Design the sequence.
């Protein structure tokens, strides 16, 4: 704290030292200087007394949390922890499903392609037709899910249900 | 550093590491203990920051929810209380920003005086208890009339016993500003203290 006090006037310096009077902040040399200054300066001495009183009163103001607040906070934290745990579990289920779907599609795509080619040849369809059919069948699940999700955001949604209702799930 | 100080520093570091581990696991029992341990300190800080009991209690709950959600961000290398107060402070600032673009300054001069819970003590005479109660009410009222950045710094310094460096880190202000806020805050409180005498 010394550096920014060196050039200030003695009263200002003394008052700053009094305000920042933590044991780690003032050296013994500064303490001696302060004691000498307080001995000769009544206004700084009054400031020291008033500051000491302020600090004593500040330390003594008792503010306590009610038992109700604590138990309510603990309950809310536990509920949120449970929600987060469920979210985490759902996340891992989705990850596992995605991995399984990717693996299955990697295996079945080639087989499905060959099956469509064989059926196209048997039915003597042009290549463009059975290839189009393959793409349609391949994308059908994703398209259906997309349509359902969009519908959920519009006419399938229950607009009477509040956010609080959802949070209970 | 002597052996006792060294022992305490190591014990605190071990405790912080343990807290960090528990928060990463989202350990509800640990959180229950932390809520109980820091209840008064956190509420007192929030109360002085917001100036309103109901608001402070809301922030108190939100702070612990945030601690649960972001517990993995606490590395255990710093004091847990400083991290906790930083979360609480950021919540208050976010709340104010949502209301209107503002800083902590807009909380200055909140009209509601902080209700202090002054316990009745059997050791003091009725006169002494009344005087003490009046003095504490006076200082609480004084705190509500000084700028919020001074109030916050005074609470962290004299009620939480934080070092100047810790306050500077928590509030994101230079050390010189922290010193000046303490000085100015105490000077601003002076008339209230004189009134309480």
Sequence:
């Amino acid at each position: 704290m010394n550096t920014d006090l060196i050039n200030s006037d003695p009263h200002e310096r003394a008052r700053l030292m009094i305000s920042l009077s933590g044991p780690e902040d003032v050296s013994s040399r500064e303490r001696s200087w302060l004691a000498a200054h307080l001995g000769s300066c009544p206004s700084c001495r009054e400031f020291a007394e008033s500051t000491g009183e302020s600090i004593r009163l500040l330390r003594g103001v008792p503010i306590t949390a009610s038992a109700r607040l604590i138990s309510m906070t603990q309950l809310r934290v536990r509920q949120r922890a449970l929600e987060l745990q469920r979210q985490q579990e759902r996340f891992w289920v989705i990850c596992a499903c995605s991995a399984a779907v990717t693996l299955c599609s990697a295996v079945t795509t080639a087989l499905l392609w060959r099956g469509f080619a064989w059926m196209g040849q048997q039915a003597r369809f042009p290549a463009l037709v059975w290839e189009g059919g393959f793409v349609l069948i391949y994308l059908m699940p994703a398209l259906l899910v997309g349509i359902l999700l969009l519908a959920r955001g519009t006419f399938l949604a229950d607009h009477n249900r509040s956010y609080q209702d959802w949070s209970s799930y | 550093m002597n052996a006792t100080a060294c022992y305490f520093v190591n014990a605190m570091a071990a405790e912080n590491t343990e807290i960090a581990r528990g928060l990463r696991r989202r350990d509800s029992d640990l959180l229950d203990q932390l809520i109980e341990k820091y209840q008064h300190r956190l509420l007192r800080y929030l109360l002085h920051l917001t100036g309103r009991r109901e608001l402070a209690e809301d922030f108190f709950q939100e702070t612990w929810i945030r601690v649960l959600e972001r517990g993995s961000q606490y590395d255990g290398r710093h004091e847990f209380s400083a991290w906790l107060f930083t979360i609480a402070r950021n919540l208050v600032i976010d709340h104010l920003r949502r209301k209107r673009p503002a800083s902590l300054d807009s909380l200055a001069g909140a009209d509601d005086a902080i209700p202090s819970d002054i316990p009745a003590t059997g050791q003091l005479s009725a006169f002494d208890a009344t005087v003490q109660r009046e003095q504490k009410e006076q200082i609480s009222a004084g705190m509500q009339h000084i700028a919020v950045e001074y109030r916050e710094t005074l609470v962290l310094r004299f009620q939480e016993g934080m070092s100047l460096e810790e306050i500077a880190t928590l509030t994101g202000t230079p050390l010189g500003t922290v010193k000046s806020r303490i000085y100015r805050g105490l000077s601003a409180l002076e008339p209230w203290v004189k009134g309480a005498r």
Notes: Residues 108-112, 118-122 of chain B have pLDDT under 50 and may be disordered. Residues 118-197 of chain B form a domain with the Arc Repressor Mutant, subunit A fold (CATH 1.10.10.10). Chain B touches chain A through 50 residues (CB under 8 Å).
